[in-house]
Amino acid sequence: MTLEKRVFSILGELEGTVGMYFQDLGTGKTISINPNTEFSAASTIKIPLISLLLIQSKSGLINLKGQVEIDRANRVGGTGVIKELDRSFKPTILDLAKLAIIVSDNIATNQLIDIVGGPESVTEFCNKLGLNNTKLQRKMMDIEAMKSGRDNITTAGDMGYLLKLLANNQIDSEEVSGSVVNIMKGQQLRQKLPYLIPALEPDDPNVYSDKVENGTVVVAHKTGDLWKVQHDVGIFMLPEGRKYVLAVYTSNLKSDDEGIRAIAKLSKEVYDAMVCDN
Prior knowledge:
- This protein is 38% helix and 15% strand.
- It is of the alpha+beta class.
- The protein has a five-stranded antiparallel beta sheet, with helices on both faces.
């Protein structure tokens, strides 16, 4: 059975809306399903945010080592750890970037949105990259904005393209692209794309090696979730320098557990095909 048929077999059992983008960066083989369907981006919007932040840092506009006092307005609930810490805690801007990605910290994200110039700056950055269906229109956990129709949106096609640019060191420079990917390698929310494949844990020093050992895979990824919405998007690094990208978006799910399981199964089918077919 072809990979395409195995993918559709999994999706045929899932109740909900799905967008998917896969590309083997070596051969160019691509599978896309509803690549232009818009989804609430949830926390995957944090990838372009961090990318812009690191570009501004390289340009000298931001000092990543500078400590920040968290604004009261940016203290929200949801995922993250800053909300559990003493309010006197002053993280560096680089700390905020790592927390926004690896534990999806919403407070860190909101502070970074202010630092890079607001939601409009991130949307403008996305447009310049050609991500015309990706917009940051509100901060994390801004319920009133959501009620008024202002949501953060993206598509599987847009995010797959962004991942490809990062994997190929085409977001500004090798320095910037590599730094974004390295932060994504530290992702600690791992029940989706890496769950059923032999992905190295983020605390394994080999994750940051230039060489990937046989039988393993390094995954640099970012999750996103809302109620009955489950996403995960990532860059996969295989032995011999081979890479692929996979972005999976789901909404209108019957249950979040079903969405999580489907993303994990899709990832395994893609990984098995990449390993067994080469």
